[in-house]
UniProtKB/TrEMBL annotation:
Organism: Azospirillum aestuarii
Protein name as annotated: YdcF family protein
ATP-binding recorded as keyword: no
Pfam families for this protein: DUF218
Ranges in a coiled coil: none
Limits of the DUF218 domain: 56-182
TM spans (from-to): 17-37
Keywords: Membrane, Transmembrane, Transmembrane helix
Length: 213
């Protein structure tokens, strides 16, 4: 009888764990679809308040196609007077950077600063914060991939809450957001980014609780 009772308790516990795992999986899956649907498909529309808003600086996070050329175009359009490129690999100088982006080296060379210390989004936020504070800037336009924007905004708001951040998402032609679940590469990218977003969001909640004490 005792053995039968213990076995029944174990089975009930396993059923509860299985139910919790299923509910957690459904919640994660629903969150993933929400995350994918929340990713902006296009940059700010020309003429909109976001597109024409001038800031003290433009900040580009390296690591994806189209980010640097977008940042240079925004600088040329006068959206800011300075451009900071965070997460540049060691050895890349401004003239080489401009050459790679098909810009004449003498035109904007003086207005660009490269940051070499960041190797993650957290590092990007801290590296950029140090530069912004050294310059006395209080606003910035953030240029990064559209799927990377939500997590980047969280990181930057945790590190430099006093700075106004205007998002400027860049869409990659290799990331297929429509029917993304049919594209294995895109699906894997979004799942990875979503998991990182969850961790970042949890960190931001914990930080806000600690700050409120």
């Amino acid at each position: 009888m005792a053995t039968h009772t213990r076995r029944a308790r174990v089975l009930r516990a396993l059923r509860r764990l299985l139910l919790l795992a299923m509910l957690g999986g459904l919640a994660w899956l629903g969150g993933l679809f929400w995350f994918a649907a929340s990713i902006p498909r296009t940059p700010p529309l020309p003429g909109s308040a976001e597109a024409t808003r001038n800031t003290d600086a433009i900040v580009v996070l390296t690591g994806g196609s189209g980010r640097l050329s977008t940042g240079l175009e925004l600088l040329a359009d006068g959206r800011a007077h300075r451009l900071f490129v965070s997460g540049v690999y060691e050895g890349l100088e401004v003239q080489e950077l401009l050459k790679r982006s098909r810009q004449f080296p003498g035109e904007m060379e003086c207005c660009i600063t490269l940051g070499y210390s960041a190797d993650s989004t957290v590092g990007n936020a801290y590296e950029t914060a140090d530069w912004l504070r050294a310059q006395g800037f209080t606003s910035m336009r953030l240029v990064t991939a559209n799927y990377h924007m939500m997590r980047s905004l969280l990181e930057f708001r945790m590190v430099i809450p006093e700075v106004e951040v205007v998002p400027h998402p860049v869409a990659s032609p290799n990331v297929h957001l429509n029917d993304w679940w049919l594209w294995p590469g895109t699906a894997n990218l979004l799942m990875t980014e979503y998991n990182k977003y969850i961790v970042t969001y949890a960190r931001s909640l914990l930080a806000s609780v600690i700050d409120s004490r």
